[in-house]
Design brief:
There is one protein chain. By secondary structure, the protein is of the alpha/beta class. Helices cover about 35% and strands about 20% of the residues. The chain is built from 14 helices and 20 strands. A 6-stranded mixed β-sheet has the order 1-2-6-3-7-18, with helices on both faces. It has a 4-stranded antiparallel β-sheet with strand order 13-15-11-16, covered by helices on one side. A hairpin with a 2-residue loop joins strand 4 and strand 5. Helix 2 packs across helix 4, helix 3 runs parallel beside helix 4 and helix 4 crosses helix 14. Bound molecules: zinc ion. The site of zinc ion (ZN) has 5 residues, from loops. Zinc ion binds next to loops.
Protein backbone atom coordinates (compact mmCIF):
# COMPACT_ATOMS: atom_id res chain seq x y z
CA UNK A 1 0.00 0.00 0.00
CA UNK A 2 1.30 3.42 -0.88
CA UNK A 3 1.61 6.03 1.84
CA UNK A 4 -1.30 7.89 0.23
CA UNK A 5 -3.57 4.87 0.33
CA UNK A 6 -2.57 4.12 3.88
CA UNK A 7 -3.31 7.69 4.87
CA UNK A 8 -6.65 7.47 3.08
CA UNK A 9 -7.53 4.26 4.91
CA UNK A 10 -6.64 5.83 8.23
CA UNK A 11 -8.67 8.92 7.46
CA UNK A 12 -11.63 6.73 6.60
CA UNK A 13 -11.17 4.90 9.86
CA UNK A 14 -11.54 8.16 11.72
CA UNK A 15 -14.58 9.32 9.77
CA UNK A 16 -17.90 8.91 11.49
CA UNK A 17 -20.11 6.28 9.97
CA UNK A 18 -23.54 7.32 8.81
CA UNK A 19 -26.49 4.98 8.84
CA UNK A 20 -26.77 2.47 6.02
CA UNK A 21 -28.03 3.97 2.79
CA UNK A 22 -30.71 1.53 1.66
CA UNK A 23 -29.63 0.40 -1.81
CA UNK A 24 -32.36 0.57 -4.43
CA UNK A 25 -32.89 -2.97 -5.65
CA UNK A 26 -35.75 -4.12 -7.85
CA UNK A 27 -38.03 -6.34 -5.69
CA UNK A 28 -38.20 -8.87 -8.53
CA UNK A 29 -34.38 -9.16 -8.48
CA UNK A 30 -34.42 -9.56 -4.68
CA UNK A 31 -36.96 -12.38 -5.03
CA UNK A 32 -34.95 -14.12 -7.73
CA UNK A 33 -31.72 -13.91 -5.69
CA UNK A 34 -33.53 -15.34 -2.64
CA UNK A 35 -34.96 -18.18 -4.73
CA UNK A 36 -31.51 -19.01 -6.16
CA UNK A 37 -30.14 -19.14 -2.60
CA UNK A 38 -32.98 -21.32 -1.27
CA UNK A 39 -32.73 -23.69 -4.21
CA UNK A 40 -28.93 -23.74 -3.91
CA UNK A 41 -28.99 -24.86 -0.27
CA UNK A 42 -31.15 -27.85 -1.23
CA UNK A 43 -28.27 -29.36 -3.23
CA UNK A 44 -26.26 -31.50 -0.79
CA UNK A 45 -22.89 -30.43 -2.16
CA UNK A 46 -20.72 -32.01 0.55
CA UNK A 47 -17.69 -34.06 -0.46
CA UNK A 48 -18.69 -37.45 -1.81
CA UNK A 49 -22.41 -36.74 -2.30
CA UNK A 50 -21.96 -36.06 -6.02
CA UNK A 51 -24.42 -33.14 -6.17
CA UNK A 52 -22.06 -30.34 -7.24
CA UNK A 53 -22.62 -31.05 -10.97
CA UNK A 54 -26.41 -30.77 -10.48
CA UNK A 55 -26.00 -27.46 -8.62
CA UNK A 56 -23.72 -26.20 -11.41
CA UNK A 57 -26.34 -27.21 -14.01
CA UNK A 58 -28.99 -25.32 -12.07
CA UNK A 59 -26.86 -22.14 -11.95
CA UNK A 60 -26.12 -22.46 -15.66
CA UNK A 61 -29.88 -22.69 -16.28
CA UNK A 62 -30.45 -19.41 -14.42
CA UNK A 63 -27.91 -17.63 -16.62
CA UNK A 64 -29.17 -19.18 -19.87
CA UNK A 65 -32.74 -18.19 -19.01
CA UNK A 66 -31.51 -14.60 -18.69
CA UNK A 67 -30.07 -14.69 -22.20
CA UNK A 68 -26.56 -16.04 -21.68
CA UNK A 69 -25.22 -18.13 -24.56
CA UNK A 70 -25.04 -21.77 -23.33
CA UNK A 71 -21.78 -22.13 -25.28
CA UNK A 72 -20.16 -19.57 -22.97
CA UNK A 73 -20.76 -21.75 -19.89
CA UNK A 74 -18.75 -24.90 -19.33
CA UNK A 75 -19.12 -27.39 -16.50
CA UNK A 76 -16.36 -29.94 -16.13
CA UNK A 77 -16.53 -33.01 -13.93
CA UNK A 78 -13.56 -33.88 -11.76
CA UNK A 79 -13.20 -36.49 -9.00
CA UNK A 80 -16.94 -36.70 -8.32
CA UNK A 81 -17.35 -32.95 -8.20
CA UNK A 82 -17.21 -30.24 -10.88
CA UNK A 83 -16.14 -26.71 -11.69
CA UNK A 84 -17.95 -24.07 -13.72
CA UNK A 85 -16.56 -21.36 -15.99
CA UNK A 86 -19.05 -18.83 -17.39
CA UNK A 87 -17.68 -16.21 -19.77
CA UNK A 88 -19.52 -12.90 -20.21
CA UNK A 89 -17.95 -11.66 -23.47
CA UNK A 90 -16.59 -8.11 -23.41
CA UNK A 91 -16.20 -5.68 -26.29
CA UNK A 92 -12.40 -5.98 -26.26
CA UNK A 93 -11.27 -9.62 -26.21
CA UNK A 94 -7.60 -8.59 -26.17
CA UNK A 95 -7.88 -7.22 -22.63
CA UNK A 96 -7.19 -9.49 -19.68
CA UNK A 97 -10.41 -10.74 -18.09
CA UNK A 98 -11.91 -9.98 -14.71
CA UNK A 99 -12.63 -13.18 -12.77
CA UNK A 100 -15.23 -13.54 -10.01
CA UNK A 101 -14.68 -16.70 -7.96
CA UNK A 102 -16.75 -18.70 -5.51
CA UNK A 103 -17.29 -22.29 -4.44
CA UNK A 104 -20.27 -24.60 -4.84
CA UNK A 105 -19.30 -27.26 -2.29
CA UNK A 106 -20.05 -27.01 1.43
CA UNK A 107 -18.61 -28.37 4.67
CA UNK A 108 -20.19 -31.63 5.88
CA UNK A 109 -23.30 -31.29 8.05
CA UNK A 110 -24.88 -34.22 9.88
CA UNK A 111 -28.66 -34.40 10.17
CA UNK A 112 -28.53 -35.71 13.76
CA UNK A 113 -26.42 -32.73 14.91
CA UNK A 114 -28.71 -30.05 13.46
CA UNK A 115 -32.09 -28.95 14.73
CA UNK A 116 -33.43 -29.51 11.20
CA UNK A 117 -32.21 -31.16 8.03
CA UNK A 118 -29.25 -28.98 6.93
CA UNK A 119 -30.17 -29.49 3.26
CA UNK A 120 -33.86 -28.67 3.51
CA UNK A 121 -33.71 -24.87 3.39
CA UNK A 122 -36.03 -23.12 5.83
CA UNK A 123 -36.92 -19.41 5.75
CA UNK A 124 -37.77 -18.17 9.23
CA UNK A 125 -37.45 -14.93 11.21
CA UNK A 126 -35.70 -13.20 8.33
CA UNK A 127 -33.07 -15.89 7.77
CA UNK A 128 -32.41 -18.68 5.30
CA UNK A 129 -31.24 -21.70 7.33
CA UNK A 130 -29.15 -24.51 5.90
CA UNK A 131 -25.60 -25.67 5.29
CA UNK A 132 -23.95 -23.30 2.83
CA UNK A 133 -26.61 -20.57 3.30
CA UNK A 134 -23.65 -18.25 3.90
CA UNK A 135 -20.50 -20.14 2.90
CA UNK A 136 -20.46 -19.75 -0.05
CA UNK A 137 -23.93 -20.12 -1.58
CA UNK A 138 -25.07 -16.70 -0.40
CA UNK A 139 -22.47 -14.86 -2.46
CA UNK A 140 -22.64 -17.32 -5.36
CA UNK A 141 -26.40 -16.68 -5.55
CA UNK A 142 -25.96 -12.90 -5.41
CA UNK A 143 -23.33 -12.92 -8.18
CA UNK A 144 -25.34 -15.27 -10.41
CA UNK A 145 -28.49 -13.14 -9.92
CA UNK A 146 -26.46 -10.02 -10.77
CA UNK A 147 -24.87 -11.57 -13.87
CA UNK A 148 -28.34 -12.66 -15.03
CA UNK A 149 -29.73 -9.16 -14.46
CA UNK A 150 -26.86 -7.46 -16.29
CA UNK A 151 -27.47 -9.71 -19.30
CA UNK A 152 -31.22 -9.04 -19.26
CA UNK A 153 -30.48 -5.31 -19.20
CA UNK A 154 -28.22 -5.67 -22.22
CA UNK A 155 -25.04 -4.56 -20.40
CA UNK A 156 -21.80 -5.40 -22.20
CA UNK A 157 -18.53 -5.35 -20.26
CA UNK A 158 -15.44 -3.74 -21.76
CA UNK A 159 -13.49 -6.95 -21.15
CA UNK A 160 -14.49 -10.54 -20.52
CA UNK A 161 -16.01 -11.07 -17.09
CA UNK A 162 -15.60 -14.69 -16.01
CA UNK A 163 -17.49 -16.46 -13.26
CA UNK A 164 -15.28 -19.27 -11.89
CA UNK A 165 -16.89 -21.64 -9.38
CA UNK A 166 -14.91 -24.42 -7.74
CA UNK A 167 -16.36 -27.69 -6.43
CA UNK A 168 -14.03 -28.77 -3.63
CA UNK A 169 -12.78 -25.60 -1.93
CA UNK A 170 -13.53 -27.02 1.51
CA UNK A 171 -11.52 -30.21 0.89
CA UNK A 172 -8.94 -31.14 -1.77
CA UNK A 173 -9.11 -27.93 -3.87
CA UNK A 174 -8.33 -29.84 -7.07
CA UNK A 175 -11.01 -27.94 -9.00
CA UNK A 176 -9.56 -24.67 -7.68
CA UNK A 177 -6.14 -25.65 -8.96
CA UNK A 178 -7.72 -26.49 -12.34
CA UNK A 179 -9.52 -23.12 -12.48
CA UNK A 180 -6.32 -21.24 -11.68
CA UNK A 181 -4.46 -23.14 -14.42
CA UNK A 182 -7.25 -22.34 -16.90
CA UNK A 183 -7.41 -18.65 -15.99
CA UNK A 184 -3.74 -17.66 -15.59
CA UNK A 185 -4.32 -14.87 -18.15
CA UNK A 186 -6.76 -13.10 -15.79
CA UNK A 187 -6.05 -9.54 -14.72
CA UNK A 188 -7.43 -10.10 -11.24
CA UNK A 189 -9.83 -12.21 -9.21
CA UNK A 190 -12.63 -10.95 -6.99
CA UNK A 191 -13.21 -13.77 -4.52
CA UNK A 192 -16.75 -13.86 -3.11
CA UNK A 193 -15.53 -16.03 -0.24
CA UNK A 194 -13.28 -13.70 1.71
CA UNK A 195 -12.95 -10.22 3.14
CA UNK A 196 -16.16 -8.28 3.62
CA UNK A 197 -18.03 -6.51 6.34
CA UNK A 198 -19.90 -7.41 9.49
CA UNK A 199 -22.39 -5.82 11.84
CA UNK A 200 -22.14 -5.44 15.61
CA UNK A 201 -25.52 -4.64 17.16
CA UNK A 202 -26.63 -3.53 13.71
CA UNK A 203 -23.72 -1.13 13.20
CA UNK A 204 -21.14 -1.82 10.48
CA UNK A 205 -17.56 -2.75 11.38
CA UNK A 206 -14.67 -1.74 9.08
CA UNK A 207 -14.81 -3.48 5.70
CA UNK A 208 -11.87 -5.75 4.90
CA UNK A 209 -10.40 -6.37 1.44
CA UNK A 210 -8.64 -9.70 1.84
CA UNK A 211 -5.41 -9.43 -0.16
CA UNK A 212 -3.29 -12.12 1.46
CA UNK A 213 -3.53 -15.41 3.29
CA UNK A 214 -1.09 -17.30 5.41
CA UNK A 215 -0.08 -20.69 4.08
CA UNK A 216 -1.63 -23.62 5.92
CA UNK A 217 0.92 -26.38 6.55
CA UNK A 218 0.85 -29.53 8.69
CA UNK A 219 4.16 -31.11 9.70
CA UNK A 220 4.71 -34.50 11.38
CA UNK A 221 7.55 -35.02 13.86
CA UNK A 222 8.53 -38.67 14.21
CA UNK A 223 10.86 -40.25 16.76
CA UNK A 224 11.78 -43.93 16.58
CA UNK A 225 13.73 -46.14 18.99
CA UNK A 226 14.53 -49.86 19.33
CA UNK A 227 12.30 -49.94 22.43
CA UNK A 228 12.54 -52.79 24.91
CA UNK A 229 11.11 -53.86 28.25
CA UNK A 230 9.80 -51.07 30.48
CA UNK A 231 11.56 -52.60 33.49
CA UNK A 232 14.84 -51.56 31.86
CA UNK A 233 14.61 -47.85 30.93
CA UNK A 234 17.07 -46.40 28.38
CA UNK A 235 18.18 -42.80 27.77
CA UNK A 236 16.81 -42.75 24.18
CA UNK A 237 13.12 -43.07 25.16
CA UNK A 238 11.11 -41.90 22.14
CA UNK A 239 8.39 -40.19 24.19
CA UNK A 240 10.92 -38.20 26.21
CA UNK A 241 12.76 -37.11 23.05
CA UNK A 242 9.51 -36.02 21.42
CA UNK A 243 8.51 -34.14 24.60
CA UNK A 244 11.84 -32.27 24.61
CA UNK A 245 11.42 -31.38 20.93
CA UNK A 246 7.91 -30.03 21.57
CA UNK A 247 9.19 -28.05 24.53
CA UNK A 248 11.67 -26.29 22.23
CA UNK A 249 8.89 -25.52 19.73
CA UNK A 250 6.67 -24.15 22.52
CA UNK A 251 9.43 -21.74 23.55
CA UNK A 252 10.25 -20.62 20.02
CA UNK A 253 8.81 -17.53 18.36
CA UNK A 254 9.22 -16.97 14.63
CA UNK A 255 10.61 -13.54 13.69
CA UNK A 256 8.21 -10.64 13.19
CA UNK A 257 7.14 -9.92 9.63
CA UNK A 258 4.88 -7.37 7.99
CA UNK A 259 3.61 -6.32 4.59
CA UNK A 260 1.49 -3.44 3.25
CA UNK A 261 -1.66 -5.34 4.10
CA UNK A 262 -0.90 -6.24 7.71
CA UNK A 263 0.47 -2.75 8.48
CA UNK A 264 -2.67 -1.11 7.08
CA UNK A 265 -4.93 -3.61 8.83
CA UNK A 266 -3.22 -3.14 12.21
CA UNK A 267 -3.20 0.65 11.77
CA UNK A 268 -6.96 0.58 11.21
CA UNK A 269 -7.45 -1.64 14.27
CA UNK A 270 -5.40 0.85 16.27
CA UNK A 271 -8.03 3.50 15.59
CA UNK A 272 -10.69 1.57 17.47
CA UNK A 273 -8.69 -0.26 20.17
CA UNK A 274 -7.98 1.59 23.41
CA UNK A 275 -5.11 1.29 25.91
CA UNK A 276 -1.58 -0.03 25.44
CA UNK A 277 -2.64 -2.51 22.73
CA UNK A 278 -4.17 0.30 20.66
CA UNK A 279 -1.03 2.36 21.07
CA UNK A 280 1.13 -0.61 20.07
CA UNK A 281 -1.00 -1.19 16.96
CA UNK A 282 -0.47 2.39 15.85
CA UNK A 283 3.26 2.30 16.54
CA UNK A 284 3.74 -1.03 14.76
CA UNK A 285 1.98 0.33 11.66
CA UNK A 286 4.51 3.15 11.51
CA UNK A 287 7.57 1.11 12.49
CA UNK A 288 7.31 -2.70 12.43
CA UNK A 289 10.70 -2.85 14.22
CA UNK A 290 9.39 -0.99 17.29
CA UNK A 291 10.47 -3.52 19.93
CA UNK A 292 8.00 -2.42 22.57
CA UNK A 293 5.06 -2.54 20.14
CA UNK A 294 6.16 -5.97 18.95
CA UNK A 295 6.37 -7.23 22.55
CA UNK A 296 2.89 -5.93 23.42
CA UNK A 297 1.24 -7.35 20.30
CA UNK A 298 3.11 -10.67 20.52
CA UNK A 299 1.63 -11.21 23.98
CA UNK A 300 -1.90 -10.75 22.59
CA UNK A 301 -3.36 -13.98 21.13
CA UNK A 302 -5.52 -11.96 18.71
CA UNK A 303 -2.69 -9.97 17.16
CA UNK A 304 0.31 -12.29 17.49
CA UNK A 305 -0.73 -14.38 14.42
CA UNK A 306 -0.73 -11.26 12.23
CA UNK A 307 2.88 -10.57 13.16
CA UNK A 308 4.54 -13.83 12.28
CA UNK A 309 4.46 -17.46 11.21
CA UNK A 310 3.00 -19.64 13.96
CA UNK A 311 3.43 -23.38 14.54
CA UNK A 312 1.59 -25.23 17.27
CA UNK A 313 1.35 -28.86 18.40
CA UNK A 314 -2.15 -30.17 17.68
CA UNK A 315 -1.92 -33.98 18.02
CA UNK A 316 0.38 -36.58 19.58
CA UNK A 317 0.61 -40.35 19.51
CA UNK A 318 3.17 -42.83 20.72
CA UNK A 319 3.95 -46.14 22.40
CA UNK A 320 2.30 -49.53 21.92
CA UNK A 321 1.97 -51.11 25.39
CA UNK A 322 1.98 -49.90 29.03
CA UNK A 323 4.91 -52.22 29.84
CA UNK A 324 7.08 -51.58 26.78
CA UNK A 325 9.53 -48.80 25.92
CA UNK A 326 8.00 -46.83 23.04
CA UNK A 327 9.34 -47.70 19.60
CA UNK A 328 7.69 -44.69 18.08
CA UNK A 329 6.27 -41.31 19.10
CA UNK A 330 4.95 -38.63 16.79
CA UNK A 331 3.30 -35.24 16.88
CA UNK A 332 1.47 -33.01 14.41
CA UNK A 333 2.37 -29.37 14.16
CA UNK A 334 -0.02 -27.02 12.41
CA UNK A 335 1.71 -23.98 10.96
CA UNK A 336 0.21 -20.80 9.52
CA UNK A 337 3.04 -19.36 7.46
CA UNK A 338 3.44 -15.67 6.76
CA UNK A 339 2.88 -14.94 3.02
CA UNK A 340 6.10 -15.03 1.05
CA UNK A 341 7.89 -17.55 3.28
CA UNK A 342 8.38 -20.97 1.63
CA UNK A 343 7.06 -23.84 3.75
CA UNK A 344 10.40 -25.66 3.28
CA UNK A 345 12.12 -22.77 5.04
CA UNK A 346 9.76 -23.24 7.99
CA UNK A 347 10.60 -26.96 8.07
CA UNK A 348 14.32 -26.09 8.21
CA UNK A 349 13.70 -23.62 11.05
CA UNK A 350 11.77 -26.26 13.00
CA UNK A 351 14.70 -28.68 12.57
CA UNK A 352 17.12 -26.08 13.94
CA UNK A 353 14.86 -25.28 16.87
CA UNK A 354 14.42 -28.95 17.78
CA UNK A 355 18.17 -29.53 17.39
CA UNK A 356 17.81 -33.32 17.39
CA UNK A 357 18.80 -34.76 13.99
CA UNK A 358 17.33 -38.16 14.89
CA UNK A 359 13.83 -36.65 14.74
CA UNK A 360 12.32 -36.55 11.26
CA UNK A 361 10.13 -33.63 10.21
CA UNK A 362 7.94 -34.10 7.16
CA UNK A 363 5.44 -31.82 5.47
CA UNK A 364 2.05 -33.53 5.22
CA UNK A 365 0.17 -33.54 1.94
CA UNK A 366 -2.58 -31.19 3.14
CA UNK A 367 -3.48 -29.79 -0.30
CA UNK A 368 -2.12 -26.36 0.55
CA UNK A 369 0.47 -24.44 -1.45
CA UNK A 370 2.59 -21.35 -0.80
CA UNK A 371 1.07 -18.10 -2.04
CA UNK A 372 2.27 -14.49 -2.02
CA UNK A 373 0.34 -11.41 -0.91
CA UNK A 374 -1.53 -9.56 -3.66
CA UNK A 375 -0.48 -5.96 -4.32
CA UNK A 376 -2.94 -3.32 -3.13
CA UNK A 377 -4.19 -2.08 -6.48
CA UNK A 378 -5.67 1.41 -6.52
CA UNK A 379 -8.37 0.38 -9.04
CA UNK A 380 -9.59 -2.39 -6.73
CA UNK A 381 -9.40 -0.23 -3.59
CA UNK A 382 -11.34 2.54 -5.35
CA UNK A 383 -14.07 0.29 -6.75
CA UNK A 384 -14.61 -1.55 -3.47
CA UNK A 385 -14.57 1.68 -1.43
CA UNK A 386 -17.15 3.20 -3.78
CA UNK A 387 -19.44 0.15 -3.51
CA UNK A 388 -19.13 0.01 0.30
CA UNK A 389 -19.61 3.76 0.78
CA UNK A 390 -22.79 3.77 -1.29
CA UNK A 391 -24.20 1.53 1.45
CA UNK A 392 -22.27 2.76 4.48
CA UNK A 393 -20.95 6.29 3.89
CA UNK A 394 -17.58 6.89 5.52
CA UNK A 395 -17.03 3.30 6.65
CA UNK A 396 -13.36 2.35 6.91
CA UNK A 397 -12.23 0.09 4.05
CA UNK A 398 -9.01 -1.67 5.00
CA UNK A 399 -6.88 -4.46 3.58
CA UNK A 400 -6.86 -7.72 5.51
CA UNK A 401 -4.79 -10.89 5.75
CA UNK A 402 -6.48 -14.18 6.68
CA UNK A 403 -5.03 -17.24 8.37
CA UNK A 404 -5.89 -19.27 5.20
CA UNK A 405 -6.91 -20.88 3.06
CA UNK A 406 -9.35 -20.04 0.25
CA UNK A 407 -9.50 -20.40 -3.54
CA UNK A 408 -7.39 -17.22 -3.78
CA UNK A 409 -4.33 -19.26 -2.77
CA UNK A 410 -4.11 -20.99 -6.17
CA UNK A 411 -4.69 -17.82 -8.18
CA UNK A 412 -2.08 -15.87 -6.20
CA UNK A 413 0.39 -18.73 -6.57
CA UNK A 414 -0.25 -18.58 -10.35
CA UNK A 415 0.60 -14.86 -10.37
CA UNK A 416 -2.99 -13.55 -10.54
CA UNK A 417 -3.79 -11.02 -7.78
CA UNK A 418 -6.89 -12.04 -5.86
CA UNK A 419 -9.07 -10.05 -3.46
CA UNK A 420 -11.70 -11.31 -1.03
CA UNK A 421 -14.53 -8.79 -1.35
CA UNK A 422 -17.71 -10.40 0.01
CA UNK A 423 -20.87 -8.29 -0.19
CA UNK A 424 -22.64 -9.61 2.92
CA UNK A 425 -22.79 -7.64 6.16
CA UNK A 426 -24.07 -10.13 8.75
CA UNK A 427 -24.25 -9.76 12.52
CA UNK A 428 -20.94 -10.87 14.11
CA UNK A 429 -20.96 -14.45 15.32
CA UNK A 430 -24.49 -15.13 14.07
CA UNK A 431 -23.89 -16.91 10.77
CA UNK A 432 -22.44 -20.16 12.14
CA UNK A 433 -20.30 -20.72 9.06
CA UNK A 434 -18.96 -24.32 9.17
CA UNK A 435 -21.01 -24.80 12.38
CA UNK A 436 -24.50 -25.87 13.37
CA UNK A 437 -27.65 -24.17 12.05
CA UNK A 438 -25.84 -21.93 9.54
CA UNK A 439 -28.08 -19.05 8.47
CA UNK A 440 -28.00 -16.07 6.11
CA UNK A 441 -29.91 -12.81 6.79
CA UNK A 442 -32.46 -11.99 4.09
CA UNK A 443 -31.90 -8.33 4.99
CA UNK A 444 -28.38 -8.71 3.58
CA UNK A 445 -29.55 -9.61 0.07
CA UNK A 446 -30.23 -6.14 -1.38
CA UNK A 447 -26.93 -4.73 -0.16
CA UNK A 448 -24.99 -7.66 -1.63
CA UNK A 449 -26.80 -7.36 -4.97
CA UNK A 450 -25.97 -3.67 -5.05
CA UNK A 451 -22.33 -4.45 -4.11
CA UNK A 452 -21.79 -6.90 -6.98
CA UNK A 453 -23.59 -4.73 -9.53
CA UNK A 454 -21.33 -1.82 -8.60
CA UNK A 455 -18.09 -3.88 -8.59
CA UNK A 456 -18.79 -5.66 -11.88
CA UNK A 457 -19.72 -2.44 -13.68
CA UNK A 458 -16.67 -0.57 -12.35
CA UNK A 459 -14.00 -3.25 -12.74
CA UNK A 460 -15.51 -4.95 -15.80
CA UNK A 461 -15.98 -1.83 -17.90
ZN1 LIG B 1 -16.03 -20.84 1.91
Amino acid sequence: MSRTLLAAALALGLASTAAAAPPRVDPALHDQALQILIKGVSFRTVQGAGQVPAYADYLKGVLVQAGWNPADITIESMDGTAFLIARYPGTDPTRKPLVVSGHMDVVEAKREDWERDPFTPVVENGYVYGRGAVDDKFEVSMVVATLAKLKREGWTPGRDVILALSGDEETAMKTTAALARRLTNADLVLNTDGGGGALKDGKPLPYGIQGAEKTYADFTLTVTDPGGHSSRPTPTNAIYRLARALDHIADYRFPTMSNDITRAALAAEGQSVAGPVGAALKRFAIDPNDAQAVATLSADADYNPTLRTTCVATMISGGHAPNALPQKASAKLNCRIFPGTPSEKVRETLAQVIADPTITITRDDDGSIDSPASPLRPDVMAAVTKAVHARYPGLAVVPSQDAGASDSMYFRAAGVPSYGVSGLFAEMGQSYVHGLNEKAPIAGIDGALFHWDSLLRDLGK
